[in-house]
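Final report, Chapter 2: Outcomes

The project's central promise was a pipeline that accepts a single protein chain and returns its three-dimensional structure in a standardized token representation, suitable for archiving and comparison. That pipeline is now operational. To close this chapter, we reproduce one record exactly as it appears in the project archive, with the input sequence first and the structure output second.
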Amino acid sequence: MRGMIGLVVGAGLLAAPLAAQGRPLTTSGVRGLTFGAVLPGVPLVVTRTDPALSGQLDIRGPNRQQILLSFTLPLVMTGPAGAQLPLVFGSSDAGYSESQAIGSQIGFDPKQSFTATLANNGRGSVFIGGTANAAANQRAGAYTATLTLTVTVLP
């Protein structure tokens, strides 16, 4: 079986200070969190620092803008005939990097909101990993879920 979590980004509270600084807040998905082949009964862990399987979203906005990152995390991926594959997100499964480099992240708990600051060039990246816990009798097939990141501009 194979699993992938699609990334959706929501931007909230795009306030007047953004327009005054001349650069709107934008986000773009670089890659979804992908578990690849999952074996029945064997948990598959994808770290936030995995350059091929971790999810990545890039953020661009005003230089040095403070933002609040909040995830809505799925509990399961859904597969063939409604089969479900449980997901777990640990306390350091998310990361933020002002330099947008996967190796220079500050880890954080994706179940909690996290305050970040965009770099001097107005950019930053969010990375996400997690664990797929396949049951011993897990049905074979493709599984998917949606993970949502909400980016809120702080005053």
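Archive annotation: The two ends are 45 Å apart (CA to CA).
This record, like all others produced under the grant, will remain available to the consortium after the project formally closes.
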